[in-house]
Amino acid sequence: MRRQLKILFASDDLARSCNDDSVRTERYGPALAATIRRRLCEINAVTHLGELRRLPSARLRRHLKRDDGTMLISLGPTADILVRPRDDPPPTPLDGGIDELQVRTIVVLAIAIAA
Q1: What H or E segment, with its residue span, contains residue 41?
Q2: Containing H/E element for 45?
Q3: H or E segment at 107?
Q4: What domains appear along the chain, each with residue ranges and CATH number?
Q5: For residue range 66-83, what is the model confidence (pLDDT) as tens digits?
């Protein structure tokens, strides 16, 4: 049986705003709400964080202003999902980055909308 990447949320309010259709639409508007839902489904379909690199629209990348393992997953040109591996510290290869193939659970920290 294929194991899915597990998604946790930093708060109950964030979980509700990402998982409840009406709350998500009210908070983020219909277009971004649909993108959030689609991206969370895509995240849930992979087995580890590294597989998101196969989805060009996800644009998985390190958060340049944070040095705590926080990553960004694109929601389009104006927003990102901020995530980090659940494990603290995250699994690291010799180069000091994050071993994305070992990350099986992520914590969604926020939906960041560009100002």
Answers
A1: helix 30-45
A2: helix 30-45
A3: strand 105-113
A4: 6-113 (3.30.2310.20)
A5: 667 789 999 999 999 999
